[in-house]
């Protein structure tokens, strides 16, 4: 719980330029940070130190899915924690009303214990034409009779929905009023309707570009509306599969501090190629890419440390600039989206969530609230 970490490069996420420095913590909280030589002999040394990653879109990993089985949900959280995600939302894909309510109920104690930071409902209120790897037969219109009891559990941190559905804008208002993040996604909405969704309280775009209309110069679509709105955080799956890296920098320039890298990982993350399940659908993983039988990409097999390295590798600028962007995308911005001031940066009072990396940016040690996270399976990708 107590300790002192020193590194050649410390990136705090607070605006302090990356450089040699240290982080001290006690009782699971950061008690001090500084540049240059540490005030005493450090307990741990690393090449690079960054805040723990915050993944707001994650369905599972290490062979386990978030859902009705608490032990599987805990395994998925532990797998991602070992890869640096000291905070994850448990994302649930479209399920039947009973299955969805059951999964939310089962995840409640894990939210209370801080194993996961909340539940992200991705569906069932999604556009059939943009359903991706969601069972189209289980999609439905948002109905307060289903939404309100789910929101009242207090475990819902985020809801992805399509605003064009009947009741969609009202549902966004309800989600926002509950304190959860309403996110526009899996949607056939155009530019104007997306703007109305943001005015109704939506504050995020779920996996920008994926499962929404493209940018067209006479029909700019949801992507342009989300990028242009200074209130809005856009998720970006920087696994190198979902969105071409050429677009990452364009997004980064358009929405500087408003990008959250997300894994959208499913159970196969960290596991060999083969057959897996995502919700009620069969998924085949080949060369680390998860697809439905019809070829639709079905989530990722990435972990947050992979996203982090990818963002740095694709950055056209200097190493310190790349590190700043990667920390913003993987920690600071998603933490801010969740309204969490205690995570996402290394500053006095923050939870001591610290990722120690080697010179190649591979995970050396992960501390969560100052405690070493047991190592997990191999990173994929
Ligand atoms: Zn999705």
UniProtKB/TrEMBL annotation:
The active site is at residue 264. Substrate binds at residues 133, 210-211, 218, 242, 297-299. Zn(2+) binds at residues 122, 186, 207. The keyword Nucleus does not apply. Binds 1 divalent metal cation per subunit. It comes from the Bacteria. Keywords: Carbohydrate metabolism, Hydrolase, Metal-binding. Gene3D superfamilies: Metal-dependent hydrolases, Urease, subunit C, domain 1. One of its GO terms (molecular function) is N-acetylglucosamine-6-phosphate deacetylase activity. Its cofactor is a divalent metal cation. InterPro entries: Amidohydro-rel (IPR006680), GlcNAc_6-P_deAcase (IPR003764), Metal-dep_hydrolase_composite (IPR011059), Metal_Hydrolase (IPR032466). Residues 48-361 form the Amidohydrolase-related domain. GO terms for biological process: N-acetylglucosamine catabolic process. Belongs to the metallo-dependent hydrolases superfamily. NagA family. This is N-acetylglucosamine 6-phosphate deacetylase. It comes from Pseudonocardia ammonioxydans. The lineage of its organism: Bacteria, Bacillati, Actinomycetota, Actinomycetes, Pseudonocardiales.
